[in-house]
């Protein structure tokens, strides 16, 4: 196997990153995540010759090491660990480590250096800000307490490096957001390896009655200019007609037909003021097969006929 690797007969999915190894290192990539600023210092593919030694050293930032090919050894805190394809380890600030590439099967390594900078609280919002803050806090806590031991990349963080590199190559719409997302995925997938099941976060569950009521009323709003049956709307929100009728009674304190009529009359009243079309044309467009049916319904809601409503608002 080592000979086959050296001969290049085994496919290497990260070969394209060798074209310009410092491409991502040159980018000033920084972003806010929860209450932390994430600053990417280095993100690249490194290769080491046979038997190459990286002397004992340390960093003030976090360094992620992902072995994508070859073998070697790493010494951390006086303990020696074997490295091979598919493993990764994390060295936090001031962790002394020394790395040696195998003489027969030299290593390729994906490296990510980044800083986690505490920031003040951002502007609170209702679009998942609190969830993001909690997840960022938990992820960085896990990374800070993670043992400096090689582990299997069980959650496939390595392909994220290649995705970031391709985003830089293509420079397509959303390149910054793509890179930010891939960096966060590396952090999250690495943190999961040593996380307990209790560390998993939970997304709040919806109140399904309220949610279905909102979906149904929005559908009526969007399609109120034509006849709507209870069965049609129930099918769109994936409930039975009887269940949808109960939802309208509990959430809207009304019936389905009363709600449809309410929306339809709102649209008709706007149409009466904004267009010069005849009342008969408007009535037909909004599902009243005989325009005479509109008059008593409209008067019951607005206290006057459609013609009087127009005159009241100065529309001839």
Automatic annotation (TrEMBL):
InterPro entries tied to this protein: AraC-bd, AraC_XylS_family_regulators, Homeodomain-like_sf, HTH_AraC, HTH_AraC-typ_CS, RmlC-like_jellyroll, RmlC_Cupin_sf
Keywords: DNA-binding, Transcription, Transcription regulation
Gene Ontology molecular function terms on file: DNA-binding transcription factor activity; sequence-specific DNA binding
Pfam families: AraC_binding, HTH_18
HTH araC/xylS-type domain ranges (all copies): 214-312
Taxonomic lineage: Bacteria, Bacillati, Bacillota, Bacilli, Bacillales
Gene3D superfamilies from the UniProt entry: Homeodomain-like, Jelly Rolls
Membrane-spanning segments: none
Name this protein carries in UniProt: Helix-turn-helix domain-containing protein
